[in-house]
Amino acid sequence: MGRSTKKTVISSLSERKHQAIQEAGTAVFLRLGYGATSMDLIAAEANVSKQTIYNHFHSKDELFKAIITDMTTALMAPLSMREAAQSTPDRLLRSFGRDFLALMLQPSSLALYRLIVSESARFPELGGPLYAVGPGRLIGILADYLAWETKDGRLAVVAPERAAELFIGMLSGRVQLRALLGVSDHLSEPELDGRVEDAVSSFLTLYAAR
Fold it and tell me: What CATH number has the domain spanning 1-58?
């Protein structure tokens, strides 16, 4: 086995362990809550040593933040400037909106949201960092995209961050709250597409280039 091939194999094994640890961490956090979760329990769930976890994540809160970061990163892919240059605001916002709404309403996402809200009261030091790597990061990237489209003349957004927050609010509406409280059924594909279409159409009407 050549040196480069060996490095590739080692890197691949490391990535798989990294993913396994995050998946195990998510499962234990959701099952027991942040406070009752320990690195020992996560190690047992992932079938790795505790030292292996510390090789990938220096602390429990770093692992928790990595889980939130990964969810956010999955949503930001369509908002890259390279993708934007090859698309249009309506197509890109529709794609982003559909991915956002679908992910937000997944049972695992709802469970994680409930966990964050409940644990942030007991561990207030978590609130700011989790917001920064999750919703704050997402809104920042969306705001950068809206500013880029405005500079390019395809939108007219005066306050990009406020507009980004507005678009997220238009997408989620009360759907997320009803889902969190367990008083709504799963959205059908046509219903999900309809909500996204309404949000995108209204948003683009408000911020159309003059």
Answer: 1.10.10.60
181: DSSP letter: T
Tell me which CATH code domain 64-206 carries. 1.10.357.10
Q: Is residue 55 within 8 Å of residue 10, measured between CB atoms?
A: no
Per-residue CA distances from 106 to 30, 77, 176, 178, 180 (Å): 14, 19, 10, 13, 10
- The confidence score (pLDDT) of residue 8 equals 44
Instruction: Name the band, by pLDDT with cuts 50, 70 and 90, for residue 205.
Output: very high
Cβ neighbours for 83, distance < 8 A, ≥ 6 positions apart: 77, 92
pLDDT per position as a tens digit, 158-193: 999 999 999 999 998 889 889 888 887 678 899 999
Domain range annotation of the chain: 1-58, 64-206
